[in-house]
Amino acid sequence: MTSMNDTNKMLRAIINGQSALKEELLEKIDTVGKKVDKLDIKLSGKIDHVDNKLTKRIDKLGLQLARMNYPTLRYASGGVSL
C-alpha cells in the first residue's frame, strides 16, 4: 500500500509536469503571436501598395472614360477641367 508521503510525491510530480507543459505551451503561443504580428505588418504594407496602385489605375480609367464622353476634357495638375 502507498503511504501518504508517496501519494504527495506522485501528486507533486504530476503538478510539476503540468507546470512545465504550461510554460512550454505559453512560449510556443508567444512565438506564434510574434510571427503573426510580423506578418500583419508585412501584409499591411503590401495591401497599402496594392491599394495605391489600384487607385491610380482606377483614376486613369475614369479619366479615359470621361475623355471619351467629353472630348474637350483636359487634365490639369489641380484637377480636371472642361
Report Rg: 32 Å
Q: H/E series, N to C?
A: HEE
- Total beta-strand segments: 2
Total of domains: 1
**Biggest sheet record:** 2 strands, antiparallel
Strand arrangement across the biggest beta sheet: 1-2
Residue runs with pLDDT of under 50 for 5 or more positions = none
**Helix proportion range:** over 70%
Structural class by secondary-structure content: mainly alpha
Give a quick set of tags describing it:
two-stranded antiparallel ribbon, 2 strands
Overview of this structure, please?
The protein is mainly α. The protein has one domain (4-81). Helices cover 80% and strands 7% of the residues. The chain has one helix at 4-69; strands spanning 74-76, 79-81. Strands 1-2 form a two-stranded antiparallel ribbon. The mean pLDDT is 86.
Topology of helices and strands:
Elements: H1 4-69, E1 74-76, E2 79-81
Antiparallel strand pairs: 1-2
Short summary:
The protein is mainly α and 82 residues long. It is built from 1 helix and 2 strands, in the order αββ. It has one domain (4-81).
